[in-house]
Amino acid sequence: MEARLDQLEALLRHEMQFNETRRQEMQQESKENFATLNARFDQLFERRREEEEPRFQLINDNPRNRQPDGHHGNPRIKIDFPRFRGDEDPTTWVCRAEQFFEFYGTPEEEKVLLASIYLEGEAQLWLQVLKDGDQQLTWDDMKRGLHTRFGPTQFEDFFGELTKLRQTGSVRDYQSQFEKLLVRAGRMTQAQQVSCFMSGLKLEIRTDVQVCKPATLTTAIGLARLYEDRSRVVHQGMRFHNTPRGNLLIKRLNPAEVNERRAKGLCFNCNERFGSPSL
């Protein structure tokens, strides 16, 4: 009996030693595999960097990608200055121009000259007349002049128009009108913008948005669109369920017809057989 136990104990020790050896081998194999993968990733990354460097260098060397002060801008981003002919509301053009000035760090004294290069047609003629009357034209003067000459000049109180604006179509249309007036209404806090935007929404949308208490205009706009979509789906579902069904035609049979159909094993509503007659 003792010999049998000793034999089992030796076998168990051998098994445990084998398992430990195998575990160490697998651990070492895993380390080697990870090291190989890391080396491969490093090679791929280095190759990609070498392929990208010449292209970025060419972009950097292009004079068109330099900032007005001669320094290089972001090599991956190039912003074109917009053109304006005077045949539309200048609000969008002014916003894009100011984005350009901010991105390239354009000095204040260079803004009018740079912007004037991209005016065309009627807008170019208007600026020439304006500059002849004011040799010290600033960018703020130019913006005010553009809005007065080419903007909706019948609205002098843009803040008042903003507070009176009401949604009559989709939320997207209302948002577009709201943002155009907001740009020209002067500085407003986020709370004022949100309150003003919500007050002009349709009642069924405004109530849901107000319950959520959005903190920013972006959130309020997103909620308004969401509830507009939900309302549209609900109305479509109601129209579907309220659609009147076609009238069911039920033929009334006299006693003779009932007996005849029963005898022939025919359905009482159609001429199909439903089984053997049951008398």
From TrEMBL:
In Swiss-Prot or TrEMBL terms, this protein is called: Retrotransposon gag domain-containing protein
Annotated Retrotransposon gag domain residues: 114-202
* Residue ranges crossing the lipid bilayer per the database entry: none
Read off the InterPro entries from this record.
Retrotrans_gag_dom (IPR005162)
Q: Which PANTHER family match?
A: CCHC-TYPE DOMAIN-CONTAINING PROTEIN
**Residues covered by region (Disordered):** 52-82
Start-end of Basic and acidic residues biased regions: 63-82
Pfam families on file: Retrotrans_gag (PF03732)
